[in-house]
Design brief:
It is a single chain. This protein has about 50 residues and is an all-alpha fold. The chain has a domain of about 30 residues. The protein contains two helices and no strands. The longest helix is centred in the last third of the chain and has 19 residues. About 0% of the residues are buried. The mean pLDDT is about 90.
Length: about 50
């Protein structure tokens, strides 16, 4: 099955121009570090809101 990642991202950006896209691979681990960093920042920010 073919899948055009770039086209998918473009469609998502049309729906939400502010969207953050993380291209990750569970097989190789590529891109996971940036996603982990983003998650960590979100957790820190939400903790500050509820402190």
């Amino acid at each position: 099955m073919q899948f055009d990642v770039q086209r998918c991202i473009e469609y998502a950006q049309q729906v939400n121009p502010q969207i953050q896209v993380f291209q990750v691979s569970a097989l190789t681990g590529t891109g996971l570090e940036s996603w982990y960093q983003w998650l960590s920042e979100k957790v820190q920010n939400s903790s500050q809101v509820y402190s």
